[in-house]
């Protein structure tokens, strides 16, 4: 099961992404908004693996030296093929890239790290919808478009997500 380290969004960015989730649902698509769990929130995944040993958590906390990072959401990106993941890119800043690289360095020996999470391969993004059928991608992109609105804010902390136990906790 997945274990991850995730950067949370401040309230205005969180609301903007949730608005996109709602517009996708209104268009008849399965957005992240259909997940009703309290822990379901917009985030940027910094690291993911099959397991994250508890003994690395103190080192992980120590490497997260910034509490807030300025974040700017960019255009819509599509990952996958027949069934795609629709996401909003996060414009990579030096601060964001450095944070992700430090987190990766601490956790680099964890089992089951996908290649796309390695520094230099990582694409920062906020997921809008998963399993979008290829025939509905155009509809999804149109539904996700933000009205004339600035999508700049900041991070609001870093959390750990344990997909097996279905629980989260803040690291910062």
Task: Describe, in plain words, how this protein is organized in 3D.
Helix content is 26%, strand content 33%. It is α+β, with helices and mostly antiparallel strands and 172 residues long. A hairpin with a 2-residue loop joins β3 (70-80) and β4. The mean pLDDT is 92. It has a single domain, classed as Cyclic phosphodiesterase (Cyclic Phosphodiesterase, Chain: A, Alpha-Beta Complex). The radius of gyration is 16 Å and the shape is globular. It comes from Rhodococcus pyridinivorans SB3094. Pfam families: 2_5_RNA_ligase2. This is 2'-5' RNA ligase. InterPro entries: Cyclic_Pdiesterase.
Itemize the secondary structure elements and their pairings.
Elements: E1 3-9, H1 11-26, E2 43-49, H2 57-63, E3 70-80, E4 83-90, H3 94-107, E5 125-133, H4 137-144, E6 152-162, E7 167-170
Antiparallel strand pairs: 1-2, 1-6, 3-4, 3-6, 4-5, 6-7
